[in-house]
Amino acid sequence: MEDLFSADGRGSEYIDQAIALVMTYAPKVLLAIITLIIGMWLINRFVNVLDAKLGKKDPTLNKFLCGLTGAILKILLLISVASMVGIATTSFVAIIGAAGLAVGLALQGSLGNFAGGVLILLFKPFKVGDVIEAQGFLGSVREISILYTVVDTFDNRRVVIPNGQLSNSSLTNMSVYDTRRCDMTFGIGYNDDIDKAKSICKRLIEEDERALKDPEPLIVVGGLGDSSVDLTVRAWTKSGDLWPFYWDMQERVKKAFDAEGISIPFPQRDVHMYKTE
Hints:
Keywords: Cell inner membrane, Cell membrane, Ion channel, Ion transport, Membrane, Transmembrane, Transmembrane helix, Transport
Domain Mechanosensitive ion channel MscS: 110-175
Protein name: Small-conductance mechanosensitive channel
Oligomer: single chain
Structural class: alpha+beta
Transmembrane segments: 20-43, 64-88, 94-123
Subunit structure: Homoheptamer.
Mean pLDDT: 81
Low-confidence stretches: none
Largest sheet: 5 strands, antiparallel
């Protein structure tokens, strides 16, 4: 009987301790959960407002800054919730710091991409909507995120390029200026009239409204090839008209040369046969 009462005494003691723990930590846990839910809602709300404001002014900075702001605020919220439950904030921050160091060493490439994204946003070599050529791809910039830049190519492919590579290598931005120069080369035969061919090219350029008057077009003999006299033709257009103008000129020049009797030679070689006895 004494053992039974003794066991009952220890059982009631455990129950009292459990009730004390629940009374002590239950309000803190409940308050922490409420704080976490409300805090996440407020952070998402703030990020959405920031996204709406920046989306109109600077789409390039928008995604990057919203993602970074949301991540920082959520980390601060988790630290605050942990301190409310009773976890020592200093030790929690130390653990996060140590984990951050370990993750940083393991993800050096990702940190390089992050730094590259910051440099891109600071110096702005390109922005959302620009047409760039980088890392062997040509297309329109769709999005600049924290780690990567998304480019849509003109044959409807989506390319994801790490920001570290973009910030550490050369790229071509084709949307900086409103006008671009269209360079073309047309070969004519050595027996053809050079002045006549030049006048045909000049006439075709003047008839095309996409060709700008200033700067004036340039039509010169650019080289003497093995089988042709090469005419270098340079005309300025609006950036959006460059390739349509180039393609149309290729067809129109060919038709005009055919109509005027000017040949466009192809590579050929004369072979002389000698009979030896």
